[in-house]
Every structure is written in C-alpha cells, then in structure tokens.
Specification:
heterodimer; A: alpha/beta; Rossmann fold; 3 domains; 22 strands; B: mainly alpha; ABC transporter involved in vitamin B12 uptake, BtuC; two-stranded antiparallel sheet; 4 strands; disordered N terminus; membrane (chain B); transmembrane transporter activity (chain B); Monosaccharide ABC transporter membrane protein (CUT2 family) (chain B); ABC_transp_permease (chain B); cell membrane (chain B)
C-alpha cells in the first residue's frame, strides 16, 4: 500500500533522517516507534507533503508520488490526525468535517442535509455516536478524535496516520478508539499508529517499525518482539527498572498541606486530602475527573466553589499562583507548551522567569552573571541536553523541555511541587531521569503531588494515591493497595458524595 | 554582551555577519540605511547635521509615545489612547497655568500624573476588568479627546510662560532638548526591559501569558504597569508638544497613536507580543521621520506621502515576516 524508501531530510546542515524505510500494508495497523526526536513526526510530515524530503521515494500502491503540499497528499488518499487537533472549536462536527469543501446545493447555498447525511454515514462506518449539533469543544477529547478520523475518511483516506492519539484519552476511550481502528483495518485502511504506550502496541498493532535518532532500526511483526526487546530497540540500551525504589513509609511525617474541603462546582462533591512531608501523593483517575482542577483550585488558578487550604496547620487562601510561589508551592502544568514554557524564551529566561529575587543587583536590577551561573547549575542538576543556556526552549525535545520546567522550580527552595502529567509525551530515557529527580526532591524533604493518567507511573511512583471520580476524591490508597485493579475500580465505580 | 530578551543568543564572539543578520534589529537597520541613502541622493541637504537634528527633533514626540507603546505591545496589548491622552494632558496643564494660575512646573507635574493616571486606569480595566485592550483604549481615547475639548471649549489655550518653549525648541550644544529627553527615556526603557525582572515579565506575558501566570508571575500587575508607562510617556510627550506649540491644543496628536504603533512594528516588535527590542522602536520612529522629512524635501504632495508611507510599512512587515 505505502512504501517510503531511503527517506532523508536535512534542515540546513543538519540531517535529521538518515535514510529511513517504512512499508505499510493495506488492512494493517503499523506502529511507528521511537523516542522523542527519533524522527517519527518528521517522517509523517514528509508523508503528508507538509515538508519535502531531501532524498528518497514515496510509493503508494506501487506508484511513485511527490507531494508538494498537504492537499496533494490528501488527494492521494493520505489522512493524518495530528497530536494537536486541527478542529475549529466553535463549529460542530459536521461543519468541521466539511470545512473548506462544503457541499453546495442550488444557488451555492450550503447543502446542510447532504453534509449531515454523509457525516452520519461515516460515523456509522466508524461505529461511533457523536453529537453532531454541539460545537466540537464541548465534545470529549476522544470524540474530537473521532471527528478528526471521520474527517480524514470523508476525504477517502486509505492511509491514516494517528499521531499519539491515545496520549490524552482515558482507558475506556482508548478501548473505543481501538475498536474503531479494528473496524477500519477490516475495511482495508492502512493505519500508521504512533504511541509511547508500549502495551497498546501489543494490543492493537500488527507490525512495527522502529526509528532511533533518525536512523531506521528495524521493521518486524509485533509477535516477534516483547516489551523489553522493543524498549531496547528504541533506546539502544536496556532499561531495567523505570522507577526508583520507594522509601519506607513514614507515618509520623508531618502534614504540609491539608485541604479539608474542596468543592469544584456548586452542588458537586466535597472532598479533601493531606500531603505529608517527603511523600509523593498520586492523583489518579480518568481524564476529566477533577484532578487538575483540584490542584489548580488549591493554588487559586481555578475558580472552585470552595477550597479550604491549611499549610502547616495555618489556614491559607491563595488567589493567584504567585501567592503559592511565595509559600513554596510550585506547579508544573499539564501542557508544557501552553502552560509551562514561554517558548520564545531561552532556557535561561525560562528558568529564571519567576525567580528574579534570587539575583538582584542594587535591588532593582538583574545580576546577569549570577543568573547565568545559577541557570547552568540548575541545568546540570536536571541534566538538560542543549547547546547552552541561551538556546531557545522550542528547539528542545519534550523531555528536555520538561526538565527546564523542573529546573525552574528546583532553582527555588520549594517545599511542594505539583507535577501534572510529568512525563506526557516524553521518551523512555528522559522519563526515568525525571522520576529520579522527583525522588531526589522528596528525599531532601520536599513533597510532591503527582497528577497522572498513566497507571504504571502512578503505581510506580506514589507513596499514597488519591483516586478521583466525577469531580471528587473517592478513595485514598496506600502500600500494597496501590495496584491497578484497586485504583481502576475506584476510578470507574467509586461513589462520590454530592453536597448541595 | 547581549542578553536581549527576545533573541536568546549568547554574545561571545564579536562581529559575526550571521549573528548580526539574525538579530531582530537587522531589518530595521537595513531599512534605515537604505532609506537614508536614497534620501541622501534625492536631497543634498539630507546628511547635514542641521537636517539630521531636525529629523530627530521632529520624530521625538512620536518616538516617545512609541516607548510606552512598545511595552504595551510586547505584552500582547495595544494602546490607542496615547495621542488623545497627550492632547488632554497638554490642554489641562496649560489650562492650569493660564486659567488657574498654577506655577508652570507644578502644572507640568500635575499633567504628568494625569497621564499616568489615565494609563493606570487603562491597565486596571484590561487586567482586572478582563476587557480587550483595543476596546478599552479606543473608549478612553474618545473620552480623553472629548474631555480636552470640553475643558478648552475647542480652542487652543495660550499665554503660558515663554521659557516652556525650551522643552520644544531649546538646545544644549547642538542637541535639541526634545531629542535629549527622547534619548533619556529610551535609555530608561532599555534598562527596564533588559535589566529588570519587570522587563522579563513583560516579554513573558507576550510570549505565553498562561505559562507566566501559572509559574507565579503577577500578570495583572505587569499589565497595569505597562499601560501606566504608556500613559506616562504620553504625558512626557505632551510636555514637548506644549513647548513646541506654546499652547494647549485639544486637537493635537490626532493619529499619533497609529504612527507610534507603526514605529514599534517597523522596529521589529511582533504585534502579538513577546518579541522585540526598544532600540528597534527608536529605529522605526526615526525611519518614519526620515520618510516624512525626505518626502517633504522632495516636495511630494502630502496626500501622496501617506500612501507611500503606508506602502512602505506594508512592505517592511512583509519582508520581516519572511525574515524570522
């Protein structure tokens, strides 16, 4: 169906793809694997005509093709669902699917009925039920993804690229997506599937292609490899254990933060939790269960109906993250690019962003020498790989970007760090480095709240886990109870108490 | 060594053509040089010290307005009220001298505080009122203009002490006073933007406001401050304007806000904020001034001049878009 041969790509003098092959057959789900920066996205952009290869050929059904732009690739039957969706938030599913190629009836008026009918057909083909009357921003992330897939199919895509579709989905949504993928596979669509979740590869994929640092590593059937072998192919070295050992629980550890009552919405559930010194408190639950909102409410960055916070036993009310910072609470937000980093800033400027108190000169001015020295020290501490402190953060890989955000907070003397999805979209190697940094922080007496959708991460890292469901905490588990069955049971069936 | 907030380039090596070309100042500078050379050919008089000082004196008012505008635009905002605020401040402070008999220095200082106050009001409405800057400042622009006209009855207020002309047309050595004031304001602005935490926060706001807020930057206070600075520079420009016109003119400064915005954008500052340099704004303002001056020296119809200037701004932005 699809054959990419000896694809090379250079940006300026730097070659990022060194002759990569990819062959995808009709009716198969083909996993494209590799760490961040391995060249997956670049390869997919070439396939879609968004960028041009420096060398190599693209064949579709044996015919050599050259795509000058995305439209030509679409015309040839290639569809892609990007990590960042390209839907217009205020339009509904039908309007999005037919954007810029609206069906027109007589007098050039939009033929709403025909479009709606076609959209319904495609949705039925996918066996999904999406509300087509509401703006897509009111749909769940998974539903939006289905709209994206439907859009590609409405363009008669026979090759479908899904770039990390599961990163933001809940387990049940992932299951639904897989059902849709299996349906498409049955219909003979060739699917390229990109994911960092290896267990998903084994569940849904038929064959795999692994890239590493822009090189083609291997291509084989999924049944020929196991988990360890896959990781080894991706990172080129064996990673025995992802998670640093948990220290013994200290029941006498004092409480740092006590949130006695938090109610996200009026009439919603009221719950509370305690964060102790030196622990990692995991916040588990499905996407949309209120984990992120709870930590933001605690910092005054989300308008909760009520939120009573005690720090060291003293009642506090934060109206702004700046006040949290003054009390030694730092937030590493869910989305690095949108909430964590000033992407047009250098590493140095990002790290010192909220920390100018530290290098003052004559009260008013920044001591540039001290700033540079502190930045270098912070970069060394978290092992940021970059040309230097003046490199722009948008030139870094996801893992290094996250390390910059971590460095920003370690550069302070923080007592509490809130990690929201600390390793989303980060490669295996950087993940374990970040885990080690988190443990270093708690070993030194800091406390961490970790919001995570990755169950293995929650289980491997947390000393205690608060499980969320529908806007409240339904259970807090510790010790041996931190296992996937227990957590998933609470997350999917736990009861929340509603208070008027 | 340059640590300019928007380039992020380390400054170790000295002259390096590639680095110079990638500086955000490169394009405005090239524009300035090209236009100067063209004007030099068109008019023998252009490169005389007298004419250069004349150009700088003429641009000083817009250039000072553009300083505040640079702060505002760097945060991703805009301030349409600066021209009207300048006229209002000029009218009120001359009024205080002539009608209320206030000593001139006191009236000037009072005027500066009025300008600062209006700017802070703009900032408060944007930051805490959570209204779009373009609407807030459009409204305050109308209000400021209207208040000036009400106060003066629409007529210029004259009869102010003659020494005030020093601010408009005075000289120290060969340097006109307004030019010196302009350079001082630019120097202060440069220090604020490049050497203080506040300056970094201004860039951070324009770069990514959410990230800045979540990492503990007091974003609302930064907004308040940049509009306050814009009001302040408008009031400082009013002092020069008063000295030049020797009267309070409620109708003065019409369209100056657009010239100020043009200077900022010609100077390489991104209209969406986050990137740009105060030095670029100075170059942009001078570039505009040279165009005005040169087109005048060439005796081109003033209506046509506006068309030419507009076309040049479009061209400059278009090239700049490709550049980055």
């Amino acid at each position: 169906m699809l054959e990419l041969t000896a694809i090379r790509k250079s940006f300026g003098k730097i070659e990022v793809l060194h002759g990569v092959d990819l062959e995808v057959r009709a009716g198969e789900v083909h996993a494209l694997l590799g760490e961040n920066g391995a060249g997956k996205s670049t390869l997919m952009k070439i396939l879609c005509g968004i960028i041009q290869p420096s060398a190599g050929t693209i064949r579709i059904e044996g015919q050599e093709r050259h795509f000058a732009d995305y439209d030509e690739a679409i015309a040839a039957g290639v569809g892609i669902v990007f990590q960042e969706f390209s839907l217009i938030p205020h339009l509904n599913a039908v309007e999005n699917m037919f954007l810029a190629r609206e069906l027109r009836g007589r007098f050039g008026v939009l033929d709403r009925r025909a479009m709606r009918q076609r959209a319904t057909e495609i949705m039925r083909q996918l066996a999904v039920d999406v509300d087509m009357d509401v703006p897509v921003n009111r749909l769940s992330v998974a539903e939006q993804q289905f709209v994206e897939i439907a859009k590609a199919l409405s363009l008669n895509a026979r090759i479908l690229v899904l770039d990390e579709p599961t990163a933001t989905l809940t387990p049940s949504e992932v299951e639904h997506l897989f059902k849709v993928m299996r349906e498409l596979r049955k219909q003979g669509v060739a699917i390229v599937f990109i994911s960092h979740h290896l267990e998903e590869i084994f569940e849904i994929c038929d064959r795999i292609t692994v890239l590493r640092d822009g090189e083609f590593v291997a291509s084989c059937a999924v049944s020929d490899v196991d988990n360890d072998r896959l990781v080894e192919m991706m990172v080129g070295r064996r990673i025995e254990n992802n998670f640093p050992p948990k220290p013994a629980a200290d029941p006498a550890a004092p409480a740092i933060i006590e949130v006695e009552k938090v109610q996200l919405k009026k009439g919603g559930p009221v719950s509370g939790f305690t964060l102790r010194k030196g622990e990692i408190l995991g916040f588990a639950g499905l996407v949309g269960s209120g984990r992120t909102e709870t930590v933001l409410a605690m910092l005054g960055a989300w308008p909760a109906a009520r939120c009573l916070v005690k720090m060291d036993g003293v009642e506090k009310r934060f109206s702004d993250p700046a006040e949290g910072l003054m009390h030694g609470i730092g937030l590493l937000p869910e989305s690095r690019k949108e909430q964590g980093l000033i992407t047009s800033f250098s590493i140095l400027q990002n790290i010192s962003l909220n920390n100018y108190g530290k290098y003052r000169q004559g009260h008013w001015f920044i001591d540039l020498k001290k700033e540079l020295a502190a930045t270098k020290a912070a970069m060394d501490q978290v092992r940021v790989k970059a040309q230097g402190p003046h490199a722009r953060v948008d030139t870094l890989s996801g893992g290094n970007q996250q390390k910059v955000v971590i460095a920003r907070w370690l550069n302070h003397d923080m007592r509490v760090l809130i990690f929201d999805e600390p390793t989303r979209g980060i490669d295996v190697g950087a993940k374990s480095e970040i885990y080690a940094l988190m443990r270093e922080f708690t070993a030194a007496g800091g406390s961490i709240i970790m919001v995570s959708s990755e169950l293995p991460e929650v289980i491997g890292m947390s000393d205690r886990v608060c499980v969320f469901r529908s806007g409240g905490i339904v259970a807090t588990v510790q010790g041996a109870s931190i296992n996937s069955e227990e957590i998933m049971t609470h997350a999917t069936t736990g009861r929340v108490e509603n208070v008027a | 060594m340059s640590h300019d907030a928007n380039t992020g380039a380390a400054g170790k090596s000295g002259l390096n053509l590639g680095r110079i070309l990638h500086s955000p100042l490169a394009l405005p500078l090239i524009g300035l040089i090209v236009v100067s050379i063209l004007m030099g050919f068109a008019s023998d008089n252009f490169f005389s010290l007298g004419n250069i000082m004349n150009v700088l004196r003429q641009v000083s008012i817009v250039a000072i307005l553009a300083v505040g505008m640079t702060f505002v635009i760097l945060t991703g905002g805009i301030d349409l009220s600066v021209g009207a605020v300048m006229a209002l401040v000029g009218t009120l402070s001359t009024g205080m001298m002539v009608n209320m008999g206030l000593p001139a220095p006191l009236a000037l200082v009072a005027g500066i505080f009025i300008g600062l106050g209006i700017g802070l009001a703009n900032g408060a409405l944007v930051a805490w009122g959570k209204m779009p800057a373009i609407i807030v400042t459009l409204a305050t622009m109308g209000m400021a203009r209207g208040l000036g006209l009400i106060y003066s009855g629409g007529y210029p207020i004259s009869g102010i002490p003659s020494w005030l002309s020093w601010f408009g047309v005075g000289r120290i050595g060969f340097l006109p006073v307004p030019v010196i004031i302009m350079f001082v304001i630019y120097a202060v602005a440069w220090v604020l933007l490049q050497r203080t935490a506040f300056g970094r926060h201004v860039y951070a706001l324009g770069g990514n406001e959410t990230a800045a807020r979540l990492s503990g930057v007091k974003t609302q206070r930064v907004k308040l401050a940049v509009y306050g600075i814009s009001g302040l520079t408008a009031a400082l420009a009013a002092v020069i304007l008063t000295g030049r016109l020797m009267s309070g003119q409620p109708n003065a400064g019409g369209g100056f806000e657009l010239d100020a915005i043009a200077a900022v954008v010609l100077g390489g500052t991104a209209i969406a904020g986050g990137r740009g340099l105060i030095l670029g704004t100075l170059i942009g303002a001078v570039l505009l001034g040279i165009l005005n001056n040169g087109l005048n020296l060439m005796g081109i119809n003033p209506y046509l001049q506006d068309v030419i200037k507009g076309a040049i701004i479009l061209l400059a932005i278009y090239i700049g878009r490709e550049w980055r």
